[in-house]
Amino acid sequence: MSERIEKIKGYLKASPADCFLNHALALEYVKQGDEEQAKTYFEVNLRNDPGYVATYYHLGKLLERIGQTAEATAIYQQGMEHAKAAKDMHAYSELQGAYEDLVY
């Protein structure tokens, strides 16, 4: 296991619901090719804070890579709703682009 993963897990012991840390850990697992662990930490973020918009794009891309197209589509749609509610048009645009690339 990488040193970065160990370090982030140490931080998470003190703040297990920290979305930034869970997101960072998920991305580290993505880099290592461990989609199942990455998916677990992205899903933790969705449970802890559905408004943490960054999670939707990366989880959607992961779901696409593992062949879960319908789930990826749903995640992109949910992300667009949360991005719109947060008035985060940059995130909305990225999610919309990923969604359209997948659906059309």
Write the layout of secondary structure elements.
Elements: H1 3-14, H2 19-32, H3 35-48, H4 54-65, H5 69-85, H6 89-103
Helix pairs in contact: 1-2, 2-3, 3-4, 4-5, 4-6, 5-6
Characterization of the model:
By secondary structure, this protein is mainly alpha-helical. The chain has one domain: Serine Threonine Protein Phosphatase 5, Tetratricopeptide repeat (Alpha Horseshoe). The chain has helices at 3-14, 19-32, 35-48, 54-65, 69-85, 89-103. The longest helix is centred in the last third of the chain and has 17 residues, at 69-85.
Record keyword descriptors for this entry:
mainly alpha, Serine Threonine Protein Phosphatase 5, Tetratricopeptide repeat, 6 helices, globular
Shape: globular
The CATH C-level name is: Mainly Alpha
Mean pLDDT: 96
Q: Tell me the structural class.
A: mainly alpha
Could you name the ranges where pLDDT drops below 50 across 5 or more consecutive residues? none
If you compute it from the alpha carbons, what radius of gyration comes out, rounded to the nearest whole angstrom?
14 Å
The number of distinct β-strands equals: 0
The name of the CATH architecture is Alpha Horseshoe
Q: Which sequence of SSEs, written as H and E, runs from N to C?
A: HHHHHH
- Give the count of structural domains: 1
Number of contiguous helices: 6
- Strand content of the residues, in percent? under 5%
Biggest beta sheet attributes: none
State the helical fraction: over 70%
Kindly identify the CATH topology. Answer: Serine Threonine Protein Phosphatase 5, Tetratricopeptide repeat
Question: How far do the termini sit from each other?
Answer: 38 Å
Query: What is the CATH superfamily classification?
Result: Tetratricopeptide repeat domain
